[in-house]
Structure formats: structure tokens, C-alpha cells
Design goal:
28% helix; Metallo-beta-lactamase, Chain A; seven-stranded mixed β-sheet; 14 strands
């Protein structure tokens, strides 16, 4: 039970994920204030000073708002692809000054190891400079993060297959989005192949990658205006049932909280 996962926040107003092993504590993104990140970590008993770094998926503000201050406050490495680094640095004050030794460049589809954790960044379709998802392997257990997906392709499926825990985007209900108050350009962006994944698509990908050793699926990055937790759950369960998969009792299916710490998982 040494592989740990917790969503600190998840949604368009800020994303931050904690992953831990007996030797490593890391964050994936910090799109909220440094103070809020620290408060979230303290809720789950993790000392922010024990962090080993922050992995960055892409440069959008809801994923990097707090990474600069946390890096400076705790001398933390920030790990991102070269193009994401360029995009973040072009945003000026959002990132702020990062110590040279904390600027770490990673490559898509190239594994790297942090003590007892194997990390794999993989490309995702989203309207950012060079966005990635991540998979993590520790002691024969696998955790995958797959959010900010405009659509699902075979590469995403191949990367998240055989996972024991998946954080999967279930951003919006299509009818709510189309009939909602968002301006036309924003609706087009969200519905595009480089926008966000709807509930139905989340259910379909989950049905395709389902296996008997899947322990937990957390639906994340829900829209505040175009979705709600029970609708996301019901839509995903419907897709699973249509594929002949009864979720009840086989694995835990839950929704990440938008503004607060979610359930703490140990694998």
C-alpha cells in the first residue's frame, strides 16, 4: 500500500494532483495558489517541504498558477517539455523567476525514473504548446492521468491501459454545453478535437481499457457550468453498461472535487 494518489483540486479553476511512494512525493500541476496547495497537502498529511518536484502537463493557467511560487518557496524542480517551458516563460509574471537548477526538461514518450517511481509523459490532444499526460509505475502498480483531452486516440488508450487507478477527464455534458450560456467561440473550442472530453467519451474510453485489476477511476476536470458530478457518474456508468461492464463492486468510481481535496487512495 505504498503507492498514493490524491486530487488536491480538479477543474477549470485549478488543477493539482499528489502522487506518493515510500521514497517520493510529487505534484502534477499546481494551478491554484501556493497557499492552497500547501493547505491541501497538509490535509492529507504531506509536508510540502518533502516534495521532490512538480510535473507540468501544459502551460494553461489552471495548471501552472502556483508552480513558480512553490518552486521558489521549497526549492522544487519543475519538470516540463522544452516547448512547454518556452510557453510558460513567455507568460512572464505567471511563472516568475525559476532557479536554473530547478528548470528540468523532459521528453514525450521517454521514461524517466525518480527514486522508486517510473514516470512516462505521453502526448495528448489539447490546445497548448506541447501538452502531455502522465503514467506512473511503482511496485507493479500503475496510475494514469488523462485530462485536457480534445479527443481520445489509440496512443492515449495504449498509455492508460493496465492502470490500477485512472484520473480521467469527464469535462462536460454536450447538451448542457450547447444549450448553455458560453459564447459560441468557447463552445467551439471545448467541443473541438483539441478541447475537452465529454462524459460520454469518458465512459467509452473507460469501457475500452477496463480490466479486472482496475481498482479506481476518478472523473476529473468537470466543468462548473456544463456538468455536475452525478450526471458525469451516470453517463459513464451508462457507457460501461452498454459495453457489458457492471461497475458496482468491481472498482471504485468517483468524481474529483473542484475546490477541495478528494478521496485519498493507496494502492
Amino acid at each position: 500500500m505504498g503507492f498514493k494518489f490524491c486530487s488536491i483540486t480538479s477543474g477549470s479553476s485549478g488543477n493539482c494532483i499528489y502522487i506518493g511512494t515510500p521514497k517520493v512525493n510529487i505534484l502534477v500541476d499546481a494551478g491554484i495558489s501556493g497557499t492552497k496547495v500547501q493547505a491541501g497537502l497538509e490535509k492529507i498529511g504531506v509536508n510540502p517541504a518533502s516534495l521532490h518536484g512538480i510535473l507540468i502537463t501544459h502551460e494553461h493557467i489552471d495548471h501552472i498558477k502556483g508552480v513558480g511560487i512553490l518552486s521558489r518557496r521549497f526549492d522544487l524542480p519543475l519538470l516540463a517539455t522544452a516547448k512547454t517551458w518556452e510557453a510558460m516563460e513567455a507568460m512572464g509574471k505567471v511563472l516568475g523567476k525559476i532557479a536554473p537548477h530547478n528548470k528540468v526538461v523532459i521528453e514525450k514518450d521517454k521514461d524517466f525514473i525518480l527514486k522508486d517511481l517510473v514516470i512516462h509523459p505521453y502526448p495528448i490532444p489539447h490546445d497548448a504548446a506541447d501538452p502531455v499526460g502522465y503514467t506512473f509505475v511503482h511496485s507493479n502498480k500503475k496510475i494514469s492521468i488523462a485530462t485536457d483531452l480534445g479527443h481520445v486516440n489509440d496512443q492515449i488508450k495504449d498509455n492508460i491501459r493496465e492502470s490500477n487507478l485512472i484520473l480521467l477527464e469527464s469535462n462536460h455534458d454536450i447538451d448542457m454545453l450547447i444549450n448553455g450560456s458560453y459564447p459560441y467561440y468557447l463552445k467551439r473550442r471545448i467541443l473541438s478535437n483539441f478541447g475537452h472530453l465529454c462524459n460520454e467519451a469518458a465512459g467509452k474510453i473507460l469501457a475500452e481499457v477496463f480490466h479486472d485489476k482496475l481498482e479506481a477511476v476518478i472523473l476529473g476536470h468537470l466543468s462548473k457550468e456544463n456538468n455536475y458530478p452525478q450526471l458525469a457518474l451516470n453517463s459513464v456508468k451508462k457507457q460501461l453498461l452498454s459495453a457489458g461492464i457492471e461497475q458496482d463492486g468491481r472498482f471504485e468510481l468517483t468524481v474529483a472535487k473542484r475546490e477541495d481535496v478528494s478521496e485519498f487512495f493507496s494502492l
